[in-house]
């Protein structure tokens, strides 16, 4: 089930980049980020109300854990900036490469109190295939 959820997440990310890029092209990168995040805020408030969810105790959570929101804003700004020049597929592919490299470092060292999953040489083949795929996508 988690594999399907992850594939679905990738699909909606590509759709999100397309839609956000359209808003950015019309209203500008910074204004579009405000609009996009405001709509997201309204959406999550609606989900909280419908599910009758409540905030749990946030004490004890390290401050740096809350910077994910800032990272989300930067992600929208940077993908909007890249979208107009690179298109959706190359923007998504390069973003996924960055996610892959970063996630391997996080796993290898167990950053953010996560379990350590050491890098092994079998993963190099996957990297090579992905980089070749991105290179082929840049050929015109």
Question: What descriptive keywords fit this protein?
Answer:
77% helix; 140 residues; globular; mainly alpha
Structural class of the secondary structure composition?
Answer: mainly alpha
Mean pLDDT metric: 92
> How many strands appear in the DSSP assignment?
0
- Give the overall shape, derived from the CA principal axes: globular
Strand content: under 5%
Q: Can you give the helix content as a percent range?
A: over 70%
Task: Show unreliable segments.
Answer: none
Rg from Cα: 18 Å
Number of domains: 1
What about the largest sheet? none
SSE arrangement, N to C: HHHH
Q: Number of DSSP helices? A: 4
| End-to-end Cα distance | 38 Å
Q: Can you describe this structure?
A:
The protein has one domain (2-138). Helix 1 (2-27) packs across helix 2 and helix 1 packs across helix 3. With 140 residues, it is mainly alpha-helical. The model has no long low-confidence stretch (mean pLDDT 92). It has helices at residues 2-27, 29-51, 68-109, 122-138. The protein is globular, with a radius of gyration of 18 Å. It contains 4 helices and no strands. The relative contact order is 0.10.
Compact description:
By secondary structure, the protein is mostly helical. 77% of the residues lie in helices and 0% in strands.
Furnish the topology, listing elements before pairings.
Layout: H1 2-27, H2 29-51, H3 68-109, H4 122-138
């Amino acid at each position: 089930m988690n594999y399907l959820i992850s594939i679905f997440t990738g699909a909606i990310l590509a759709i999100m980049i397309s839609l956000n890029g359209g808003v950015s092209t019309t209203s500008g990168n910074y204004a579009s980020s405000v609009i996009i995040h405001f709509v997201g805020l309204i959406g999550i408030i609606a989900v909280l109300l419908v599910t009758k969810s409540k905030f749990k105790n946030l004490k004890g959570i390290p401050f740096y854990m809350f910077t994910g929101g800032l990272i989300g804003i930067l992600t929208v700004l940077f993908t909007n900036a890249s979208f107009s020049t690179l298109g959706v597929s190359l923007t998504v592919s390069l973003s996924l490469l960055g996610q892959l490299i970063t996630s391997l470092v996080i796993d290898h060292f167990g950053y953010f109190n996560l379990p350590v999953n050491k890098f092994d040489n079998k993963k190099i083949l996957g990297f090579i295939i992905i980089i070749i795929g991105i290179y082929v996508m840049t050929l015109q």
